[in-house]
Design a protein that fits this description.
41% of the residues lie in helices and 15% in strands. The chain contains 13 helices and 15 strands. Helix 2 packs across helix 8 and helix 9 packs parallel to helix 13. The longest helix is centred in the N-terminal third of the chain and has 22 residues. The chain binds pyridoxal-5'-phosphate.
């Protein structure tokens, strides 16, 4: 089966280095917030060319801690993307604030024209969590202009976009904070949970360090209510010595496969969504759109061809049952996001996918018209 990831191939490639990283942490006798986390934080910030990186427990916490550090809480409104992992609105809801969903554009990304209209007419919205979805980079010039003009606290959700650029600038370089995830399927995924907060000033990095560790300013000195959300030494060591050094090569393969798909898929009833002009995308996912009435049939068709396709995501966030009514009332109807989700499928794209497998995926796409 051609899957959305291949962790067995990844292990065959990286196993010896991963085991060395485990050995190094084991023999150090230090398992929480030690040298490995410090070293990885420095390597990640240098790789991403962003000031400071602070390792935390996962991407959800990276978002929530960033919002907390900006002072976001009960009574606040946070503009955000209508299509994302549920973690994005969940982090907002966990601070006590209310997410406000704008609709999406034709790429499934938050529609920045609609954002401008919402921000202009609703001055009570003081925070913004734009998601660089699918590995695309949103228009950073517009994000920077919104931050300035509307005096926003901005947390860029970069869980899917390490390695994505907007006209030469990295995703994550506009907000007071950038939040990312090392969930195993991500472009830089750990062998378990992990996340990081980047792009902040020194004092804000210190604030995140405090929040991730029970709100301590020094050992056993608790100034604020914090969390237990520490990236652990094992994950940091594996990321730093086995995975981060491979990331540029992995992203090159993702871009190559995306290029093959964009050139080679000629179906009229299965259409690659593509990338917005100006985004140098890192292709975390490769979405295509099919007739919503035939989506289930398309998934079964690909499976019969030995190909697993994904859905990112089956529903727009406003449609999720866990979303409180007050959020739906505060949000756009998200009609385009609902339509996008009803039609979207994600083709396999990952660093260990062979060219021959990518060609099989393209052939299956091109035969879909005649099914
Ligand atoms: C866009 C987005 N934001 C946030 C997250 C949350 O990351 P995590 O699963 O590490 O909590 C994810 C990953 O699932 C994601 O894709």
């Amino acid at each position: 089966m051609i899957g959305l990831n291949d962790f067995k191939r990844q292990w065959a490639d990286t196993g010896p280095e991963v085991l060395r990283a485990v050995e190094q942490v084991g023999s150090s006798g230090w398992y929480i917030l030690g040298e490995s986390v410090r070293r990885f934080e420095q390597s990640l910030a240098a790789y991403w060319k962003l000031p400071y990186a602070v390792g935390v427990g996962n991407g959800l916490d990276a978002l929530e801690l960033s919002l907390r550090a900006l002072g976001c809480g009960a009574g606040d409104f946070v503009l955000t993307s209508p299509i994302s992992a549920f973690a994005t609105p969940l982090a907002i809801l966990k601070t006590g604030a209310t997410p406000v969903f704008a609709d999406c554009d034709r790429f499934g990304l938050i529609d920045l024209d609609e954002c401008e209209a919402i921000l202009t007419s609703r001055p009570e919205i003081r925070y913004f969590v734009p998601v660089h979805l699918f590995g695309h980079c949103l228009d950073l010039d517009k994000l920077a202009a919104f931050r300035e003009r509307f005096q926003l606290g901005v947390v860029e959700d970069c869980a899917q976009s390490i390695g994505a650029y907007w006209r030469g600038r990295p995703a994550g370089s506009v907000g007071q904070f950038a939040a990312t995830s090392f969930y195993p399927t991500k472009n830089l995924g750990a062998m378990g949970d992990g996340g990081a907060v980047l792009n902040c000033k020194a004092e804000d990095a210190a604030r995140i360090r405090q929040l991730r560790d029970y709100g301590q300013s020094a050992k056993y000195v608790h100034d604020v209510i914090g969390y237990n959300s520490r990236l652990d030494e094992l994950q940091a060591a594996i990321l730093d010595s086995a995975f981060l050094p491979r990331l540029s090569g992995w992203l090159k393969t993702r871009r190559k496969i995306a290029g093959m798909y964009l050139d080679g898929i000629r179906s009229t009833s299965l259409r690659p969504v593509g990338a917005p002009e100006g985004s140098d995308s890192c292709w975390h996912l490769f979405p295509v759109l099919v007739d919503p009435g035939r989506k289930a049939e398309a998934i079964a068709y690909f499976k019969s061809k030995g190909i697993l396709v994904g859905e990112h995501y089956p529903q727009a966030l406003v449609e999720q049952q866990a979303i409180p009514d007050r959020v739906r009332q505060a949000s756009s109807r998200c009609t385009r996001a609902r339509e996008f989700c009803a039609s979207e499928l994600s083709l396999p794209i990952h660093p260990y996918l062979h060219d021959e497998e990518a060609r099989q995926v393209m052939a299956a796409c091109n035969q879909w018209d005649s099914v």
